[in-house]
Amino acid sequence: MVTLICSLSRGKGSWGHVTRMITDYNWDKIVLITNEWCKQNFAPTKEISWIMINRNMGYELMKKTIKDGLPEAKEVAFNMISGDGKEHMASMQAIRETYPDHYKLAILTKDGLKYY
């Protein structure tokens, strides 16, 4: 099975995308990289693991925090539709270092789930 990792931050329309990624597909594990405000206000419909970051963290600390929270996984789908550049850079580098050969970017399109 595939582990889904999504960034979740403030962004118009991005929570709906993340919600559909979570609810419309079967995942081995679901991990959200987010902040305290989003965790308090997002209502997931499935069991979620949370990696808590703060946008005021420096890049290296943010990357380490994300990397330390990533689960063991054989295959990873990463969606970064929500969030900002520093969150995306830190997440992407943590994922590349943790799962160098078995991650793909995942996004919902009008044709369904696509991997890149």
How does this model look, in words?
The chain is an alpha/beta fold. It has a single domain, classed as Rossmann fold. 35% of the residues lie in helices and 26% in strands. The protein has a six-stranded mixed β-sheet with strand order 3-2-1-4-5-6, sandwiched between helices. α3 (59-69) crosses α4.
Output the number of helix runs: 4
Number of domains: 1
Q: Can you identify the CATH class?
A: Alpha Beta
The CATH superfamily is identified as Hypothetical protein VC1899 like domain (Restriction endonuclease-like)
| H-E order | EHEHEHEHEE
The share of residues in extended strands comes to 25-35%
- Provide the low-confidence segments as ranges: none
Provide the CATH topology: Rossmann fold
Topology:
Elements (H helix, E strand, L loop, with lengths): L2 E5 L6 H10 L5 E6 L1 H6 L7 E4 L6 H11 L6 E4 L5 H14 L4 E7 L2 E4 L1
Task: Identify the notable features of this structure and list them briefly.
116 residues; alpha/beta; Rossmann fold; 6 strands
Summarize the model shown.
This protein is an alpha/beta fold. The chain has four helices and six strands. Strands 3-2-1-4-5-6 form a six-stranded mixed β-sheet, with helices on both faces.
